[in-house]
């Protein structure tokens, strides 16, 4: 008898034209936290989908508790004790926490109606196990993002799951919430006999919480069940991308006494921003740091004219401007916004590469009588798509079929093509593989060196410290600190966290 | 549209084309008179109208919305045209311009209210359907305009191409080409589609989504008014009940043509020629079933079934787009 709860041996999975997995192995020890790593497109999602019964492998075997299994549906996998907590929330927002937890097996009373007392009692049991102080009658949409995440885990536990797959569980959590989540996961492993597969792009987290690591690269094992203690960050990155990670730092001399290009003066907004003052110099990367809910994205959206500014002034080159809409911002003032949510706000997923990359320049390119054909657009956007090394079979490819990294490149490319002077870049590398991430970092620096002024919102502290020239810290819709970045991680991060927790 | 044959074969339009041919074959063999000059001419007059109202619905479905007021709007515009020509003696050409402007205006009301209130166009156009039709009935006292200029009514009964084809069909087909051109080769057409596909992303990319949605509703009103004029020319009179009570008679073909044609109900995709083929298919089935003499109720029954089938097809399309995109 082996002490593996889950074993996948020599798994191969073919899709038309692609070998997503090629003789891949994955072994999960009982009561361990196992990191599954790899760049986008390396085969992680495919492996997870095979474990959870969404796909069937073409070759290879799957053993659960030393018994060979093959799941024909996610339901079967769930009944066998395998639960997956996705990046996207799978809770019904209008239902209560209790209803969500008990959804698949709602207790009924003698009349066949739902017995809400039992719902509350049963779900309370699982919330207690997780030491979660949530009233089961709370409506899910009233919870914070972090609490929703924890409820999802509680839901998985309530299904008596012994294997928990967590896909990027911390992507929308603050550092504090992440800490709490990790403490919980460790406790679950120790007390509830749960084994966890942990998928994340944040390597710091992997080192913090995982026992073993399996890395996939191009569908094959780059390493298999390696002890985390045998690895360090450099080795891990090399396993993932096949070469050493390039550390980049912005080296620029910005004179912060120069006149500002964009100046926000005592801005108060409908959304609750209080007396916001900040200025952006030409060619500067100004970082906006803060926890989720600090009001950074909201501030930018107000500036873009999507929400109302109640008082205060916006100056562009010392002249007061009024931005009524993103159209106004783009066409009149050459200001663009790269959204944090590329699937919802950044791209039109059902449309092709060409129309996504060209959407910002149509207005400029149109000829007489609004005439515009594909080749005009192509000639304009092609240099940028090439520059960004977007990997796509053709410009007619539907964007939803591309990998996350390539999608993000396209949502950046369209703004490069539009030739804006000021770019607001919101969380540019969330859920993106390391290679593309460092590529985008280089690009952002290069852009600023060429004179584009950038306001960068990111919750990724290393990213902030390697890119920004100056860092503004926000908390509760207010500016709470400003620091000139010296690119020293320890100093900067403690100074920023100091601002936040003052 | 793609030049490569294998790609075209995979499209919805190709499937429709095959269906159209199959039905033509079935009805030619199983009925007398399907291929007669008289029947083909009659078909061309009917299909012309079905195409036009299909297009009128398509441009609103593009926004992810609906236009239930289509029939009421078209008839109201037609009655306005009848009044212009008969009561006011306004020349035909100017009347047509006025009617199209009036239709666009009614469409603008639909769009403006939808955009400003944020209420789904289903509700808005349900209300305006009743309002337009009610007003029209009130003002005309439910009386028809039957003394229209001869030049106008003659056009409706003109027979071209060896007396097989009505000029109305030519107008509809030309409209298809114009719309195809707009959606494929103009800045504004691209913006309409982008706004329909993902309003948030379009807005953040510098497109005024509200304005685009209003344009779509105006275009819908324009096309519905054009359909109204064509129907008036075909009948030779402007009659309040010519599209049924509240314009209901137009609704089924209006939905069937674009949905069969491959326009996604969730918005963001148009298929102009698909809508044309969809309308042809609907008209064929309608006509063929009448010729087989199955009776009015069965025809409606079948069209209902086809609409349900088409909606299932719509769901399947979305499902398969998702399935394909899973591979990464």
Question: How would you summarize this macromolecular structure in one to three sentences?
Answer:
The complex is a heterodimer of chains A (502) and B (328). Chain A is α/β, with parallel strands linked by helices and 502 residues long.
Which structural traits does this protein have?
heterodimer, A: Rossmann fold, Rossmann fold, six-stranded mixed sheet, 20 strands, globular, B: 328 residues, ABC transporter involved in vitamin B12 uptake, BtuC, disordered N terminus
Description:
- The complex is a heterodimer of chains A (502) and B (328).
- Chain A has 502 residues and is α/β, with parallel strands linked by helices.
- Chain A folds into two domains: 4-241, Rossmann fold, CATH 3.40.50.300; 262-334 and 420-501, Rossmann fold.
- Chain A has helices spanning 44-51, 74-79, 97-101, 116-129, 145-158, 175-191, 203-209, 233-241, 296-303, 326-333, 342-346, 353-358, 362-365, 374-387, 404-418, 434-449, 461-467, 489-501, and strands spanning 4-15, 18-29, 33-37, 59-64, 67-69, 82-85, 163-167, 195-199, 212-217, 220-227, 262-269, 276-280, 285-289, 309-316, 319-321, 335-338, 422-426, 453-457, 470-475, 478-484.
- In chain A, the strands form four sheets. Chain A has a six-stranded mixed beta sheet with strand order 6-7-8-3-9-10, sandwiched between helices. A six-stranded mixed beta sheet of chain A has the order 16-17-18-13-19-20, with helices on both faces. In chain A, strands 2-1-4-5 form a four-stranded antiparallel beta sheet, covered by helices on one side.
- The model of chain A has no long low-confidence stretch (mean pLDDT 86).
- With 328 residues, chain B is mainly alpha-helical.
- Chain B has helices at 5-10, 12-30, 37-61, 70-86, 92-117, 121-140, 150-156, 167-185, 187-197, 199-204, 209-235, 251-261, 272-292, 296-326.
- In chain B, α13 (272-292) runs antiparallel to α14.
- Chain A binds chain B through residues 15-16, 18, 20, 40-41, 45, 49, 304, 306, 325-327, 329-331, 336-337, 339, 344-351, 355, 359-360, 362-363, 365-366, 369-373, 398, 400-404, 414, 418, and chain B through 184-191, 193-194, 197-198, 200-208, 264, 268-269, 321, 324-328.
């Amino acid at each position: 008898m082996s002490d593996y709860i889950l074993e996948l041996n020599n798994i191969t999975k073919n899709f038309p034209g692609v070998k997503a997995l090629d003789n891949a192995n994955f072994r999960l020890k009982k009561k361990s936290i196992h990191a599954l790593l790899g760049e986008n497109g390396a085969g992680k999602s495919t492996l997870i989908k095979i474990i959870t019964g969404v796909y069937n492998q073409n070759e290879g075997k799957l053993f659960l508790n030393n018994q060979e299994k093959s799941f024909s549906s996610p339901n079967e996998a769930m009944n066998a004790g395998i639960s997956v907590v996705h990046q996207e929330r799978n809770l019904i927002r209008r239902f209560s926490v209790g209803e969500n937890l008990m959804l698949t097996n709602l207790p009924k009373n003698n009349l066949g109606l739902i017995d809400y007392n039992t719902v509350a009692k049963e779900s309370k049991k699982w919330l207690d196990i997780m030491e979660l102080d949530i009233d089961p009658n709370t409506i899910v949409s009233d919870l914070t993002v972090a609490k929703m995440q924890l409820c999802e885990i509680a839901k998985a536990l309530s299904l008596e799951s012994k294997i928990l797959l967590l896909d990027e569980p911390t992507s929308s959590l603050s550092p504090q919430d992440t800490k709490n989540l990790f403490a919980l996961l460790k406790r679950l492993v120790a007390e509830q006999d749960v084994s966890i597969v942990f998928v994340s792009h944040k390597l710091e987290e992997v080192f913090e919480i995982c026992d073993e690591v399996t890395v996939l690269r191009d569908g094959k094992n780059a390493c298999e069940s390696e002890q985390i203690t045998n690895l360090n960050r450099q080795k891990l990155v090399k396993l993932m991308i096949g070469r050493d990670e390039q550390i980049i730092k912005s080296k620029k001399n910005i004179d912060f006494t120069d006149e500002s290009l964009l100046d926000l003066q005592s801005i108060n907004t409908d959304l609750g921003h209080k007396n916001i003052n900040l200025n952006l110099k030409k060619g500067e990367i100004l970082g906006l740091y803060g926890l989720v809910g600090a009001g950074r994205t909201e501030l930018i959206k107000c500036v873009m004219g999507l929400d109302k500014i109640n008082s205060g002034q916006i100056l562009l080159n010392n002249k007061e401007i009024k931005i009524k809409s993103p159209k106004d911002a783009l066409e009149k003032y050459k200001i663009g916004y790269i959204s944090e949510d590329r699937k919802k706000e950044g791209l039109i997923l059902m449309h092709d590469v060409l129309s996504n990359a060209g959407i910002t320049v149509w207005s400029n390119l149109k000829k007489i009588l609004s005439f515009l054909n594909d080749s005009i657009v192509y000639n304009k956007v092609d240099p940028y798509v090439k520059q960004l090394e977007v990997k796509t079979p053709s410009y007619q490819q539907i964007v939803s079929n591309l990998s996350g990294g390539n999608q993000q490149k396209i949502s950046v490319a369209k703004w490069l093509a539009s030739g804006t002077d000021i770019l607001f870049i919101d969380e540019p590398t969330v859920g993106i593989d390391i290679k593309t991430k460092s590529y985008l970092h280089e690009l952002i620096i290069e852009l600023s060196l060429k004179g584009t002024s950038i306001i960068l919102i990111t919750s990724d502290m290393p990213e902030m410290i390697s890119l920004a020239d100056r860092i503004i810290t926000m908390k509760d819709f207010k500016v709470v600190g400003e620091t000139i970045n010296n690119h020293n991680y320890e100093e900067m991060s403690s100074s920023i966290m100091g601002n936040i927790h003052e | 549209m793609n030049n490569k044959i294998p790609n075209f074969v995979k499209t919805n339009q190709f499937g429709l084309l095959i269906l159209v041919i199959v039905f033509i074959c079935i009805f030619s063999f199983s009925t007398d008179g399907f291929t007669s000059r008289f029947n083909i001419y009659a078909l061309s007059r009917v299909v012309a109208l079905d195409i036009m109202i299909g297009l009128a619905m398509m441009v609103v479905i593009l926004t992810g919305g609906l236009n239930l007021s289509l029939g009421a709007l078209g008839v109201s515009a037609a009655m306005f045209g009848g009044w212009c020509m008969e009561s006011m003696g306004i020349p035909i050409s100017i009347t047509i311009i006025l009617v199209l402007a009036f239709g666009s205006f009614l469409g603008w009301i639909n769009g403006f209210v939808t955009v400003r209130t944020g209420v789904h166009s289903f509700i808005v156009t349900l209300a305006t359907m009743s309002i337009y039709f009610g007003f029209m009935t009130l003002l005309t006292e439910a009386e028809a305009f039957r003394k229209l200029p001869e030049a106008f009514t003659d056009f409706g009964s003109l027979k071209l191409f060896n007396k097989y084809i009505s000029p109305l069909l030519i107008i509809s087909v030309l409209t298809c080409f114009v719309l195809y051109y707009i959606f494929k080769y103009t800045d504004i057409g691209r913006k309409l589609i982008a706004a329909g596909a993902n309003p948030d992303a379009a807005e953040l990319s510098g497109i005024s989504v509200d304005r685009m949605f209003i344009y779509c509703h105006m275009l819908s009103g324009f096309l519905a008014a054009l359909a109204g004029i064509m129907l008036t020319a075909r009948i030779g009179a402007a009659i309040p009940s010519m599209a049924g009570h509240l314009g209901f008679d137009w609704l089924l073909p209006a939905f069937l043509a674009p949905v069969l044609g491959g326009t996604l109900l969730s918005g963001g995709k148009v298929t102009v020629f698909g809508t044309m083929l969809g309308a042809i298919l609907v008209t064929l089935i309608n006509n063929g079933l009448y010729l087989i003499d199955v009776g009015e109720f069965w025809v409606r029954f079948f069209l209902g079934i086809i609409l349900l089938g088409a909606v299932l097809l719509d769901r399947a399309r979305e499902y398969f787009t998702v399935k394909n995109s899973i591979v990464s």
